Amino acid sequence: MLISINPANQHDLDILKENFRGFVREFMNCSIIGDKGYIDKGFENLLRQGKVYFEAIKEIRQTLRVCYSLATASENMIKSFIERTKYKILNKLRKSIETNFSKLVAMFSKHIHAVSKKGLSVKLLLFTIAYNLKVLDEVNSIK
């Protein structure tokens, strides 16, 4: 598991670049979903060379444009439909992740006392486990 605790004023892309080798080792042959603003084309190509694939979530209206690089209109319609469907699914996934992350943060205490980064990491992992157990309990109580 790759965990990095950094100052809030440090940009996520800078942190990713600093931890590039560990990131590639951890996520080789995986697709990473994220915001377009968190990556640049050069770094995206570097990730791709390490067999890590970054999928930027675009707004759905951006995917409605027809791609004119294909030869026929029917190919354009298929490409457009696939892109729209793909980004609708990715946007639903993103919303789910953001909602669950907000619920997880709401469970945290306002102040976490930790003497070291390792201690803070353990506390954050325990909060995450507690949240997952809570969700599991809610799912089981529905059945």
Automatic annotation (TrEMBL):
InterPro entries: Transposase_11 (IPR002559)
GO terms classed as biological process: DNA transposition
GO MF annotation terms: DNA binding; transposase activity
Start and end residues of each Transposase IS4-like domain: 4-133
Record-linked Pfam families: DDE_Tnp_1 (PF01609)
Name used for this protein in its record: Transposase
Species, as recorded: Methanotorris formicicus Mc-S-70
